Amino acid sequence: MKKLSIAVLIALLLITVFPTMSFAEDSPINPGHEVKFMLDVSQFATTDDLVNAFHASHDEDLKVYYFDTPDQIFRKLNYVHRLRIYDGDKKTDITYKKTFPDQAPSDAIAEAAEHDFHGDMSNYKYEIDKKPGKDSFSISRKEKFNKNDKLNYDNGIDIKYALDLFREEAPKKYRNWDDQDWYYDTLEQAVPYGPAAVSKFEGNYEDIDADLEIWHYKGETIAEISTKTDDADDADVIQEKWSEALANEGWLSTNQQSKTSFVMDR
Predict the structure, then answer these.
(1) Best label site of 20, 41, 136, 215, fewest CB within 10 Å?
(2) In terms of Cα–Cα distance, which of 24, 56, 48, 38 is closest to 202?
(3) H or E element: which one contains 139?
(4) With a cut of 50, which residues of the chain have pLDDT below it?
């Protein structure tokens, strides 16, 4: 009874001293922007020519897998499960991503807010992908792991172990977006797509820092140039500048597919 009285007194004191104080509201989602262009690799005689065109230097090599059911149920509902294994003694990571390809970014952000996502969640990344003719919002979360023999760059992966990892690490907000039981049941049916062999480079294009990725899968090759900025106006300027320059050089691919599509559609 005494403890209760003290608690009541403290509450009354707070109300008296801070009568106009209000609890801080969650901050709004303020996404970053990534400008992306697929390149026409046929315009370069060799990979070295492609790399040199963007004044790029080698950064790292990795293998990329996607996980989905044989009929790609997750993808149809805009879920992405990605596993990346890096060459050498580097990390392994898995990414959970929710995309909104058929919505304007503002509408997608509003929907995310309805699912209790907000700008104070530092473990989630909010981003608008700016590809020619289309901007799309996404939410992603990455989990990093130490090198593991069951997820091996050279010798492949233990599929069951990988799926167990995706299940165990799935963020609550991600697995509950639709229904948790459905999510887990669907994940149990997942199979790997890939791996794609990826080489990443750091370069420069039109005096702007650029990331260059070259992907190889099933005898085909794609290349993407990209850069990130937190400023929406800067992203628009970069997109226009690069679009014009790449078109003038004849380096802009007519197929602006996603890297996910490059793997999962083959």
Answers:
(1) 20
(2) 56
(3) strand 134-145
(4) 1-4, 7-23
